# Entry
Amino acid sequence: MVTAFKAFLATPAGRFVGVYALVLSLSFLVLALRPVNDRIVNPYTTLVAREARLVLNLFGEGATVSKQVLSSPRFSVSIFNGCNGLEAILIFVSGVIAFPAPWRRKVLGIVLGFAAIQVFNVVRVVSLFYVGIFRPQWFSVSHIFVWQSLVIIFSVVLWLGWVRTYALAGARR
Amino acid sequence: MPSRAPAADIRTFLRRLPLALAGAVVLWALARPIYAHALCAATQFLARVAEVPPASAVVLQGDDALLGRTDMRADSGWLKVPLVQIHFNLVPFLALALALPRPLAGGGWRRLLLALAVLAASHVLALLFQLKFLEAFSMGPWSQANYSDLARNVYGTLRYFFDIPVTFALPLLLWIGTYPQQVFALVGLGAPVRR
# Structure
């Protein structure tokens, strides 16, 4: 069993799984540390709230942001850890780091993926804001079930897109 | 370096994904009432295994689990946890699995059941650590008397770990672990799989 596991880890696929699980676990652990939470996670969550405010105000919502709380005269949401898109970013970035591809392509993937997830997450927050205004009874199911499921699937699809467009394009040369 | 994956495989996977997601939602919706009962019962059983007197309680109330202790006043220290937050990750896992080529062939269904069992075990543990967190932090002098600082730190960490990292990352790791051949063929780290 141990020998088979070691043999698996020696293959490209095994190395991918090992590095992926390691990077993912470490990054989630680092995010849980109080100083990291205070200096990185909370300011990042405020940034997400500000981006969503920008979009909401394009629709004339008159939204304001105070720390991680996004408010308008019609509705208010507090964005917590787990709803700020960081989990999607970690899932995606860990996949990119673990995949055997040139580092320049990994960096490009991380930058583009980060931007794509930002856009996705702003759409999530804005849509939830409007669900809260127009269908408050659907807010909980939209927030937890619909969008969190989509976050996981979006990260995987984004990663597959990166593998096909960038990582494997590099392997051909 | 990985070999070039047949682009058609990824395209087929992405084409199947919306349908697989719809199927996963239907399966989840059908199983949810029974699953919620089983989840609460299993968690309560596990919480009481080494407990004297067995008083930890996990009560199903609609779509939520009410967590508390039966040896405390009825109006003190009960926590309502939305069960969907704990078991929604069955849906992305099933969707990703069902979108792969031939997910049930060649013993795939057996591996799928095993993965679902692992996911279910993670749900029981997630609910259990919510209960332990409540007992360790939110029951005033009782918490102080029954849980040490170390135990509080351990349960706080485990609650976080099962609340966010496990919930979001486990479906993905199980997807890769259950169907390594299909997933690695999809990304060019293995031989293509017959569709």
